[in-house]
Amino acid sequence: MSLVEIKDLKVHYPIRSGFWNRVTDSVKAVDGISFNIEAGETYGLVGESGSGKSTTGKSVVGLEKVTSSSIMYKGKDITKKANRKSLDYNHDVQMIFQDSLSSLNPRKRIEDIIAEPLRNFENLSKDEEKLRVLQLLDIVGLDADALYKYPHQFSGGQRQRIGVARAVATNPKLIIADEPVSALDLSVQAQVLNFMKKIQREFGISYLFISHDLGVVRHMCNNIAIMNRGRLVEIGTRDDIYNHPLHIYTKRLLAAIPETNVNDRAKHRANRLAVEEVYREQQDKYYDDEGKAYPLVQISPTHSVALPEDVAKELILKEGEVQA
Ligand SMILES: Nc1ncnc2c1ncn2[C@@H]1O[C@H](COP(=O)(O)OP(=O)(O)O)[C@@H](O)[C@H]1O
Ligand SMILES: [Mg+2]
């Protein structure tokens, strides 16, 4: 059994208009997506801004009212509040946000910020609590003098470490990391990713790792889902996605990974333009008449793509020739 199973998740926001302020339409932020997160793994959810990633993340933590879905944890559906309560779900599943400056209360000291989940979920004495907060600071590589400081006194990378310390405080099973390094410089990104991996190994935590950049998740994720316009357009292992992408949208995201090697920039740019050209010419093939992505079809035990079956088969044949 997977740690968490998300089945046909839909989150539609009503749009009201007119004199009576009636619901006239809806934004289909998430429109029928399914995936499983295994214990101890990092699952990547990747797509451009606006594709519905944060809404998905918030639904999995239980912060979003879902239109329909079942999200199974330990055999129970946690979209029902009573089940979240009886399973201690809010203790087991925590969240890290992209923007640590607005997600950490600026008026609270680091000691109180990290202790907050402990105070909510665990009955510790003052001394036990302080010891635990010091341990957590140590785990994320910060000194004890951080205890009495405020969030603005730290750099972006250090604040992300504080966000991680708070998220792991209760020893959760799953952490939803929503663009955890997107606001950081490249060199700092690598540091934060490395200690997130270290913490995962030590505590056996699973991550749902959300990003708009396929370059960032490459070394983090065993399995990846590509999200586009509220739907999943491709699911696969790291090898499937990076070495055998099939959907044009996945190929665009791959072509958009920033090239750090100056010598390869011209080639990289040429490739990106070529992919954009294919996208313009062949879009129709990849989306239905309403512009929606097709249902996923499975093309190997690990790899699925959102295409009509005949188109998928044709593509696989063509890709095979290219690779041969
Ligand atoms: N509370 C809301 N009310 C209406 N529309 C929303 C709300 N939250 C998000 N959306 C819309 O849902 C879509 C997906 O948003 P989001 O999940 O934040 O995407 P991402 O995290 O991939 O950038 C966007 O079009 C966004 O404008
Ligand atoms: Mg987002």
Automatic annotation (TrEMBL):
<dbReference type="InterPro" id="IPR050319">
    <property type="entry name" value="ABC_transp_ATP-bind"/>
</dbReference>
<dbReference type="GO" id="GO:0015031">
    <property type="term" value="P:protein transport"/>
</dbReference>
<protein>
    <submittedName>
        <fullName>ABC-type oligopeptide transport system, ATPase component</fullName>
    </submittedName>
</protein>
<dbReference type="InterPro" id="IPR027417">
    <property type="entry name" value="P-loop_NTPase"/>
</dbReference>
<keyword id="KW-0813">Transport</keyword>
<dbReference type="Pfam" id="PF00005">
    <property type="entry name" value="ABC_tran"/>
</dbReference>
<dbReference type="InterPro" id="IPR003439">
    <property type="entry name" value="ABC_transporter-like_ATP-bd"/>
</dbReference>
<feature type="domain" description="ABC transporter">
    <location>
        <begin position="4"/>
        <end position="254"/>
    </location>
</feature>
<keyword id="KW-0571">Peptide transport</keyword>
<dbReference type="GO" id="GO:0055085">
    <property type="term" value="P:transmembrane transport"/>
</dbReference>
<dbReference type="Pfam" id="PF08352">
    <property type="entry name" value="oligo_HPY"/>
</dbReference>
<dbReference type="GO" id="GO:0015833">
    <property type="term" value="P:peptide transport"/>
</dbReference>
<keyword id="KW-0067">ATP-binding</keyword>
<dbReference type="InterPro" id="IPR003593">
    <property type="entry name" value="AAA+_ATPase"/>
</dbReference>
<dbReference type="GO" id="GO:0016887">
    <property type="term" value="F:ATP hydrolysis activity"/>
</dbReference>
<dbReference type="InterPro" id="IPR013563">
    <property type="entry name" value="Oligopep_ABC_C"/>
</dbReference>
<keyword id="KW-0653">Protein transport</keyword>
<dbReference type="InterPro" id="IPR017871">
    <property type="entry name" value="ABC_transporter-like_CS"/>
</dbReference>
<comment type="similarity">
    <text>Belongs to the ABC transporter superfamily.</text>
</comment>
<dbReference type="GO" id="GO:0005524">
    <property type="term" value="F:ATP binding"/>
</dbReference>
<keyword id="KW-0547">Nucleotide-binding</keyword>
